[in-house]
Write a structure and sequence with these properties.
By secondary structure, this protein is α/β, with parallel strands linked by helices. 38% of the residues lie in helices and 16% in strands.
Length: 291
């Protein structure tokens, strides 16, 4: 599907969401959070030590735990029993019509594993696929929650902060962690801690002899990650250029700054406890001090 067709198919769903009642905007009065504190787990390599040593029973009694992307495939998923799960990458939804791609595998893993109450957050642009998931999770403890995912490159404090508070716009999410932090703020948490947010991708870039860009994309569950193509468009095989990938990284960190302004305006404290993280938009906190 071309970019123009994707945009044209999105906007009717977006405007429909203002009257539908199965999305985050209409659910804010009841909130989907159980606790005032939230712990958001990225999938960065630094998370490995934390998930292995954390007292998850204690954390779960005081924090809503948020996980993202492929976390459900890990043993730690059952240990931490997250109450919130955020998916943002379109690849998880584009592949729901096959048995071999990441989408089906991930969601079927949730069906097999989750025996606790968990909210699964999905961008409203994937509403058509989301209906498939609602049916898939019908007899489980998983509740599908849609959120509006319009993010803009430009940012003006007024009126954008007000629009983000109302879930009309959100910070541009080039990374799922941006969406997870934003949703945790809307969920009413007043104390948010992030871990596994290394954001050290630039250290793992490689330009090969074919002059194409590759990356050793490392996660906490990867034992020996290898170089893989850094695609701008997987369907066409188009690689990012060095200029384009650093522009993408710039937008990621700009969105964290915007989230910092949004959280401050709402009196929400966001801390980063990731050792060696390259995110500088939030104050640091030691792991022993947070949970």
């Amino acid at each position: 599907m071309s970019k123009l067709r994707r945009h044209l198919s999105y906007w009717p769903v977006y405007f429909w969401s203002f009257i539908a009642r199965n999305n985050l905007f209409y659910s804010r009065r009841s909130r989907f959070s159980r606790h005032k504190k939230a712990l958001i787990l990225g999938n960065g390599p630094s998370l490995q030590d934390f998930v292995a040593s954390a007292d998850w029973a204690s954390i779960g009694s005081t924090h809503d735990v948020y996980c993202v992307n492929n976390f459900a495939f890990q043993d730690a998923f059952i240990l931490c029993k997250p109450s919130q799960y955020v998916i943002f990458d379109p690849n998880y939804f584009n592949s729901l019509d096959t048995d071999l791609k990441s989408g089906n595998s991930l969601f079927l893993k949730m069906v097999e594993t989750v025996d606790w109450e968990m909210n699964l957050y999905i961008p409203i642009r994937f509403y058509s696929m989301g209906r498939v998931l609602i049916e898939l999770f019908r007899n489980t403890s998983v509740r599908v929650v849609f959120f509006r995912d319009v993010g803009l490159k430009s940012y003006f404090r007024f009126p954008f902060l007000g629009l983000m508070k109302s879930q009309i716009l959100m910070p541009r999410a080039n990374n799922v962690l941006i969406a997870a932090i934003y949703l945790s703020i809307l969920n009413g948490h007043n104390h948010v801690v992030i871990d596994g947010a290394d954001h050290s991708w630039h250290q793992n870039l490689h330009v090969a002899d074919d002059n194409l860009l590759y990356i050793k994309d490392s996660h906490f569950y990867d034992k020996d990650p290898s170089l893989s193509p850094l695609y701008k468009d997987r369907l066409t095989g188009q690689h990012f250029s060095m200029e384009e990938i650093f522009e993408s990284y710039r937008l990621v960190h700009k969105s964290y700054r915007v989230i910092g302004e949004l959280s401050a305006s709402l009196g929400v404290k966001v801390f980063n406890q990731t050792p060696g993280s390259f995110i500088d938009a939030f104050p640091r906190m030691g792991r022993s001090d947070s949970v």
